[in-house]
Amino acid sequence: MSEREEAMKNHPAGKGRVDVEEPVDETNEPEWVMDARDRCDACGSQAYYLVKMIEGELMFCRHHFLKNEDKLTKVSYEIIDESIKLEPQKAEAHA
Fold first, then answer.
1. Which domain holds residue 45?
2. Most CB contacts within 10 A, which of 18, 23, 29, 65?
3. Model pTM?
């Protein structure tokens, strides 16, 4: 019996609910945020960059992200870069 279960057993509320932690997936497969359905907001090509800003989110293909990278970096609080998917050998090594 874990320490938490023991503490709950002895708690005045009786046998309260004990949250069980979900098992952690320890596979090395990357968790992709975007897939082939996500499109560049500039041209409609497949998006590989998700730019998160206070005002909202924008998605970009590699070409349009690199073209506007300086500006986007200044106004964003997070940039998710999944361009490694463009190079299958590196994506497999990343997994």
1. 27-94
2. 65
3. 0.64
Residue count of the chain: 95
At residue 93, the 3 state secondary structure works out as helix
The answer to whether 51 and 31 have CB atoms below 8 angstroms apart is no
* Dist CA 46 CA 26 (whole Å): 29
Q: Give the total number of structural domains in the chain.
A: 1
Alpha-carbon span 64 to 46, nearest angstrom: 11
CA dist 62 and 86 (Å) reads 9
The residue to which tokens 């938490």 are assigned: 4
Residue 15 lies in a domain: no
- In which residue are the tokens 């992200």 written? 65
Angstrom distance (rounded) from CA 41 to CA 25: 33
Kindly state whether residue 18 falls inside one of the protein's structural domains. Answer: no
